[in-house]
Amino acid sequence: MNRKLAKELKVADFPMQPYRLGHRFYPHETRGEWSRTARAQGVTITPYELQAHSQDIRDGYYCPQLADLIEACGGRFERLFVEKNIWTAETTEPGKIHALADSPEEAVAKLWFALHQKKS
User: Fold this and answer.
1) CB proximity list for 19: less than 8 A, separation 6 or greater
2) CA gap 79, 87 in Å, rounded
3) 54-93: pLDDT as tens digits
């Protein structure tokens, strides 16, 4: 997941699970003492990051894993499939909402956005 999508999820109040080892986050653009590379490519959460940088993780942009994204879509998520390197996530909604992306996480995140907009 890229920085832009992780930031959009945070701004949209995506329901975040507790921060877990192995997940990724992008440090905030100006807070903390992170390298340009870490800000651009993200950081994988290790025990050290959880202990020493928990505020930076909260301030930054957390990347939910695929299972978290599917769970957030709830019972309206139907399926996820790939054809010719394009991932598609679909709902059970009448008229089927589709979301296309280059990765399964991005496809389901886009589906969550579509469902979230319809709810509002």
Assistant:
1) 25, 45, 50, 54, 57, 58, 62
2) 11
3) 888 889 999 999 999 999 998 999 999 999 999 999 998 7
pTM for the structure as a whole = 0.86
Compute φ and ψ for 94, nearest 5 degrees.
Answer: -60, 135
Looking at residue 118, its pLDDT comes to 53
CA 117 to chain centre: 16
Residues 19 and 108: their CA atoms lie apart, in Å, by 19
SS3 track for 76-116: HEEEEEEECCEEEEEECCCCCCEEEECCHHHHHHHHHHHHH
Fill in the amino acid letter for 39. R
pLDDT tens digit sequence for 40-56: 999 999 998 888 888 88
Token pair in block for residue 103: 């990765």
- Where are the domains positioned within the chain? 3-63, 66-119
